[in-house]
Structures are given as structure tokens and as C-alpha cells.
Amino acid sequence: MRLRVLLALALAATGCALNVPAPKTPVQAPEASERAWARVLDAWVDDRGRIDFAGIAKAPGDLDAYVAWVGAVSPESSPGSFPTAESRLAYWINAYNALAMYNAIQSGIPRSLGGTKFRFFYRDRLVLGGKRVSLYALENEVIRPLGDPRIHFALNCMVRGCPRLPRVPFEAARLDEQLDSAARLFFNEERNVALDPAAKAVRFNEILRFYTKDFLAKAESLIAYANLYRSEKIPADWKVRFIPYDWTLNRQ
């Protein structure tokens, strides 16, 4: 929270946004655009969720095609194309992930976002449904208000601290299943949940600190929320600590 306040103050002080150039690729039909995003994930993301940014930069056609489509079409600009809550949320998650990937490449594939978080998340503006939007605004003003905390295990800002990026797009028809699967994967990975029985403590990925309010809307404690998805339950009376977030770009 303190980081967000400082970044918000910095944004107010520095003023102008930075418009990230949109792809010049012609906008394709929805089905073709969605297939392009599926090819990006299949070709350039490995089984550990790491991204081959250099490979995409050399052959950007599919990512550009999808980013061009989300730049022109959204649930706000074309509501008739997204008739269900699931179709809208699947769109927003895929759009966020694709725009974060695109921005990482447009930013020169930095080693880490640690020193550029303010620009990358707050100042950079990307085109979405015909409007310019920051990744911060997309997450916090559009996606989080939908009220499903499982989105925090699906949204990916392309760094190692993020949940694992799946190799298939999120789809309206099986979105609930995909979000549940993402939550189970997240809470059963030791990098996100480290148990310390001697100290009667658990260390969570800092995502749970960043968005504590969202999780507590669904469970009485962070441990209780984690236990909804864990195979090995955490004792309710253990202390909660956090693993420092890794802002290193999650490249192959």
C-alpha cells in the first residue's frame, strides 16, 4: 500500500503519461485474433511459465495481431460481443497479460521491472478498446472490482514473482475451472507458500499482502483462503509472513 501511495504521488507530480506505440497490424476477426494469442502462449511460453521475449521480438506477428484486436475491441466498446460475465472476465485477463507482454518487449526487455515499476504500470498507456489505459488502471479499476480474487493467480505482469503464465488462453466456457486450477497451482507451489513448522509460520508470496482486502472478502484470514486450494492445509494459528516479490523479468 505504501508503494502505491508513493507511486500515485509521483504520478501526480510528474504529470504526463507515456503512450506506448500500438502495433500497425490490421485488426483481424475475433476468432483469428484469439488463435493468434493461443499461438503466442503455445510457442513462446514454456512449461514453467517462462517467456521467450527475444523470440517474440524477432517474430512479433501473432502478439501484434492480438494486441491490435484488443486495442480496437473491448467489452466497453463492443458490449454485444461479450454477452456473459465469463466472456468479459476472460477477455480482461487475456488482454492484461498480452499488453504486459507487449509492453515488456516495447520497453526493450529489461532485466528487471524493479527500477521501472512506476513507468511500466502507471505512466505507460496502451490502447484498449480504442482508449489509452495503464496496466495499473486496467487491473485496479476494471478487473479487481469484478470481485473474484482468483484473478490474482491469472494476471501476469511478466516477472518471476507473478503466478505461472499458462500456455493456453483463458476461455469463457471454462473460466471457472481455469481460475480454480490457477489458484490451486499457486498455493501448492513452494515458491509461493513456504512452511516453517519450527516457527509455526507460513511465508506467502507478497501478492497476498498486496491484495489482502480482496482475499479477506472471501475468507476469514489469508491462511483460510490459502487452505481453500491447498492439498496440505496450514494450521489456522500459524503466523503469516511474506516472501519478497521478485521483479526480475521472467524470461527463458
Radius of gyration: 18 Å
* SSE succession: HEHHHHHEEHHEEHHHE
**Strand order in the sheet with the most strands:** 1-2-3
Decide which structural class fits the backbone.
mainly alpha
Q: Could you tell me the mean pLDDT?
A: 94
Oligomeric form of this entry? single chain
Tally of DSSP helical segments:
11
Range of helix content: 40-55%
Shape: globular
The description of the largest β-sheet is:
3 strands, mixed
In the predicted model, the low-confidence regions spanning at least 5 consecutive residues are: 5-15
Strand content: 5-15%
Q: List how many beta strands DSSP finds.
A: 6
- How far the N terminus sits from the C terminus, by CA atoms, comes to 31 Å
SSE arrangement:
Layout: H1 2-14, E1 18-19, H2 30-44, H3 53-58, H4 61-72, H5 85-106, H6 117-123, E2 124-128, E3 131-133, H7 135-143, H8 175-187, E4 193-196, E5 201-205, H9 207-210, H10 212-216, H11 222-227, E6 239-243
Parallel strand pairs: 1-2, 5-6
Antiparallel strand pairs: 2-3, 4-5
